[in-house]
Design goal:
three-stranded antiparallel beta sheet, hydrolase, AB_hydrolase_fold, lysophosphatidic acid acyltransferase activity, carboxylic ester hydrolase activity, alpha/beta, Rossmann fold
Length: 393
């Protein structure tokens, strides 16, 4: 603790960032199953890429009718932020999740008087009307399919090591898996400027990783902040993203950094408070706080980032496009996994996400919390695998 305070004071006096991760060599060679990918000059990400050693089996032809989902919905956005989602025609019966999530057009408080003296209500004009016409064939993705890749994206303060159990599980089943470290996290390089950790900068990193390893059918798995990058990729590449899995990702709201947050403190102060922050994360991120959970936190390399990177990443969470309308336009099946004891993300937020999305399934794990993939790996792996193999009747 004394060492931490001393380093924090030196940080204030010298203007340096303590414990910053230094830049790595721009080598793309695989080391112990890890690859270092240079997404931009000097910006290098550590990536776990496991390619199963198996022959490519010939793909069996699938009838166009099997696994077909045809949905057409009209989304009306009003100026007060309300959404009216209407599933149109008999084709909407193929949708797995079709609920009107907003009230119909509300009348204007200022009524227009009629001839008989009764005030008529004037309907509000919508701000924007979007029509989504989805005709997508959703097939089962088995480990023997050579065109399937699973991407795992962690959140703030984590690393690809939090996916250890999932990476091993799916690799043994014959799946190709890809898991990157975000910039400044894990063993990726840490640029010394705050602009390198905005949502858009990190999203472009994930776009580069996706374009490097994507195949015909890609399944995105995100945790916490990583869910936003999965949503971004699914929106940008609807033909390549086959399914999305969101673990404790929260509601379909636009990202905006909090003005009254502890992460707005100077990096030197955050560094002094790092032991307290780590303990707070342990209490809020795990349902129990025993020796096992502390070991899981250590092995997962979670919350082991510099104070500068933590502050810049939290302050850079600005993504106004990612609102409810943005999520309602997604035409890809989504599995929502929520740990019931999560103190960061209330279950009501994931329930709202399930209402907004076109095809969504919400699974709640009673004994899990925010780091549910570390607490309940077997349960999470089973849920993920069932969804990977799922296809509509």
């Amino acid at each position: 603790m004394l060492t931490t305070i001393t380093e924090g004071l030196l940080c204030c006096l010298l203007g340096k960032t303590p414990n910053a991760v230094g830049p790595l060599e721009s080598s793309l060679e695989s080391r112990d199953g890890f690859t270092f990918l240079e997404v931009k000059p000097g910006r290098i990400l550590r990536i776990h890429h496991a390619l199963p050693d198996r022959p490519e089996p010939p793909e069996s032809p699938v009838a166009p009718e099997r696994g077909a989902v045809r949905c057409k919905r009209r989304i009306t956005l009003y100026r007060n932020g309300q959404l009216l989602i209407e599933n149109l025609g008999p084709e909407s019966l193929a949708c797995q999740n079709s609920a009107e999530v907003a009230e119909p057009e509300a009348p204007d408080p200022a009524g227009i008087p009629s001839k008989d003296g009764v005030a008529k209500r004037r309907k509000r004009k919508p701000k924007k009307v979007v029509t989504v016409d989805c005709e997508k064939r959703i097939t089962s993705c088995k480990g023997t399919h050579g065109d399937v890749v699973l991407f795992f994206i962690h959140g703030v303060g984590g690393s690809l090591d939090i996916w250890k159990e999932q990476l091993e599980f799916f690799s043994k089943l014959g799946y190709e898996v890809v898991a990157p470290d975000l910039a400044g996290h894990g063993c990726s390089s840490a640029p010394p400027v705050a602009a390198a950790y905005t949502f858009y900068a990190l999203a472009e990193d994930m776009r580069a990783v996706f374009k490097r390893y994507a195949k015909k059918r890609n399944i995105l798995v995100g945790h916490s902040y990583g869910v936003s990058f999965c949503t971004f990729l699914a929106h940008e590449y609807p033909e390549l993203v086959h399914k999305v899995i969101m673990i404790n990702g929260g509601g379909p709201t636009a990202l905006e950094p909090s003005l009254c947050s502890i992460f707005n403190l100077p990096p030197c102060v955050l560094h002094c408070l790092s032991p307290c922050l780590a303990w707070s994360f342990l209490k809020a991120g795990f349902a129990r706080q025993g020796a096992k959970e502390k070991q899981l936190l250590k092995e997962g390399n979670a919350f082991n980032v510099s104070s500068f990177v933590l502050r810049a990443t939290m302050s850079g969470q600005y993504w106004p496009e990612g609102d409810e309308l943005y999520h309602a336009e997604l035409a890809v099946p989504v599995l929502l996994v929520h740990g019931m004891h999560d103190k960061f993300v209330p279950v009501e937020e994931d329930q709202r996400m399930a209402e907004i999305l076109l095809i969504a399934f919400l699974k709640v794990i009673d004994e899990g919390s925010h780091m549910v993939m570390l607490e309940c790996p077997d349960t999470v792996n089973t849920l993920l695998h069932e969804f990977v193999l799922w296809e509509p009747d």
